[in-house]
Write a structure and sequence with these properties.
The chain has 11 helices and no strands. The chain is mainly alpha-helical.
Length: 276
């Protein structure tokens, strides 16, 4: 009598891995791509290297400044060591945020990703979570490094300490701003699915449209300008609220986060319904 051999149940190739597997996969992808490493190196070079050069040059020319210019720098000590580096670093963050997802569409790897993990929202959630944590950690490290190094460079003429009103909030807020900007850019990459187009859209909004709204007339133009995503978000970098600011620092960052959440929702809907 022949013994029956029961078939061994093999896991199907299309088995749906959980969020943990998707997170590990996205972390592996983002840390092994050369563009990520070079982008982070560029952020460090801008946040610390370029800031140090600007701070040193400013202090070297301190005696040539008019009293009005010196007083303005004394009132805004973070302008040199924090706001200017963030303004340039945000360009790198925007490009990296777009490429986190658009590069997969460009190379066609998105189809392999979705074959390995058919749950599209799980894939997008993993990309968002991994990139948000990476940008938050890197942003905070570079913000505090830039502050402590820059503080030493300007100490002879412009004293500034973490205990000064609004300073700690601004330094922490700089890292938060970069993290939100990264997700804002990622959403554009997911919506447009084209690297060059998404980068152009984000940088055009950040550098051109946001500034042009300041030229709109009357109070409605002032309100539109204040509620533009990055204009609102950058208020977190100011240690003191300006008299004509319509939003406070945390309110501004909240507005920026709200715009980002809205774009991510649109990106999620399109990511789930469109073909890869």
């Amino acid at each position: 009598m022949t013994a029956l051999t029961l078939p061994v149940a093999l896991p199907p190739a299309t088995r749906k891995a959980g969020l943990g597997g998707a997170l590990r996969s996205e972390w592996t992808k983002i840390r092994t791509v050369r563009s990520t490493i070079w982008s982070l190196v560029a952020m460090a070079g801008i946040s610390i290297g370029l800031m140090s050069l600007i701070a040193w040059a400013t202090m070297h020319r301190w005696g040539r400044f008019e009293p009005r210019e010196q007083a303005d720098l004394l009132r805004h000590p973070l302008e040199i060591i924090l706001a200017r580096p963030v303004f340039v670093s945000q360009l790198v963050v925007a490009v990296l945020g777009v490429m986190v997802i658009s590069a997969e569409y460009t190379t066609g790897m998105i189809r392999s990703t979705l074959q390995a993990q058919p749950r599209r929202l799980t894939v997008l959630t993993a990309k968002i979570a991994v990139f948000a944590i990476l940008m938050l950690v890197v942003g905070e490290l570079l913000s505090f490094a830039a502050f402590f190094i820059g503080r030493q460079l300007i100490a002879a003429h412009i004293p500034v300490h973490l205990g000064d009103p609004g300073v700690t909030r601004s330094v922490i807020g700089a890292g938060l701003y970069l993290a939100v900007l990264g997700l804002f850019s990622l959403a554009f990459g997911a919506i447009l699915r084209h690297t060059a187009g998404a980068i152009t859209a984000v940088l055009g909004l950040v550098l051109i449209v946001s500034n042009l709204t300041g030229l709109l007339p009357d109070s409605w133009g002032h309100h539109i300008n204040a509620w533009m995503p990055t204009n609102a978000g950058q208020l977190i970098l100011q240690a003191q609220r300006a008299p004509d600011d319509l939003l406070g620092p945390w309110q501004g960052l909240g507005v920026f986060a709200g715009w980002t959440a809205l774009l991510l929702i649109v990106a999620a809907v399109l990511f789930r319904t469109r073909d890869a």
